[in-house]
Specification:
Blueprint lengths: L4 H9 L3 H14 L12 H9 L3 H8 L3 H8 L7 H12 L1 H9 L1
C-alpha cells in the first residue's frame, strides 16, 4: 500500500540523505555482493581497446575523425562498408593496427 503524504514527510524528516549517500558510495567502492556495476562496451570500443590505441590514434589509422569514432562507439552512427572491413581486420589482428599506427 502506498504511503500517505504525511507518512512520507515523517519518514523523510528522520532521514539523513548525506549519510545514506555516503554509505551507498562506500558500498559501491567495496564491491559488495549484488552491487556489481558493469558497463557494456560497443563492438567498436572493444576492438579499439584490444588494439591498445587511444580514440585519436585509432581514428587516425582508420582515416576517420575522432568524433566519428566516438559516434560509432556510442552507437549513434554505424561504420560504412569500408570502415566495417577495417574494423573486422582490427578485431582479428589488433597487432596490424598497432603496426600501421607506429609506421
Amino acid at each position: 500500500m502506498p504511503m500517505t503524504e504525511k507518512e512520507l514527510k515523517d519518514r523523510d524528516a528522520k532521514r539523513d540523505l548525506g549519510v545514506e549517500l555516503l554509505a551507498s558510495v562506500l558500498e559501491m567502492k567495496a564491491g559488495k555482493k549484488g552491487h556489481t556495476h558493469k558497463i557494456a562496451l560497443s563492438d567498436v570500443s572493444q576492438v579499439r581497446a584490444r588494439s591498445g590505441l587511444s580514440q585519436t590514434q585509432f581514428a587516425q589509422v582508420l582515416g576517420v575523425s575522432a568524433r566519428t569514432l566516438q559516434e560509432w562507439e556510442q552507437g549513434r552512427r554505424k561504420p560504412s562498408g569500408a570502415a566495417q572491413s577495417l574494423l573486422a581486420i582490427a578485431a582479428r589482428r589488433p597487432e596490424v593496427i598497432r603496426e600501421i599506427f607506429l609506421s
